[in-house]
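Researcher: First entry.
Model:
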Amino acid sequence: MNNPQNMSPTEVLRVKLEVLRREHRDLDEAITALQERAVADQLTVKRLKKQKLGLKDRIQVLEDQLTPDIIA
């Protein structure tokens, strides 16, 4: 992987975005696994879902920063 000091700001944002997407995917899998259990801990599931929504918001912010504004 590139040295962060040699990466452009856009490359840094893309790396951060990929890390957040991976975390979001991992949380989704954890939630699914918990819900498939006979006795799911609903409080834990609720907390994971809240954390997943927070990641989704952070992902959206980074995607907006990477997408150039287009004046229609």
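Researcher: Second entry.
Model:
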Amino acid sequence: MQTFLNVLIVILVILVIALVVLYFVGRKMQKKQTAQQEQMEAAKQTVSMLIIDKKRLPIKESGLPQMVIDQTPKLMRRSKLPIVKAKVGPRIMTFVSDAAIFDSIPVKREVKAVISGIYIMEVRGVRGPLETPQPKKKGFFARMKDKVTGKAKEEAKAAQQTGKQGKKSKQAK
């Protein structure tokens, strides 16, 4: 019993130390992120561009400059980024899009984009509003869940209606 308590105390101490370290690392990362966001806000500019293509690609296949690829962390090199190829003036350029707006970027249309370097922060339509993206198809399990919950609701309604009819027939007798 004594050894069990000692092991438990050691594990708790290690967990507390890990949580404290994660707390301070998280605060440091948050400060870095706010500083980067301020720099991006300072360098942003609005540009009219024709979107040629958009894809989610690994950074090595994206067509970004080699300097950008070299500066990315090793762990990020395997992940796929939202890449947008667009014609800005006479030049065709490759941009990295914000993941939140990537689905709303229309292909083969002219847009006004707020960019900071090679990063697209916001997109607006030049001639009218942008089209809303089509909702994604539901997966197999989501459809089955809807069917089950829909049947349960129908059964509950049917039970309520038969309960009301049963009371009416008892009152008629």
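Model: Note on the second entry: The chain has a mean pLDDT of 85.
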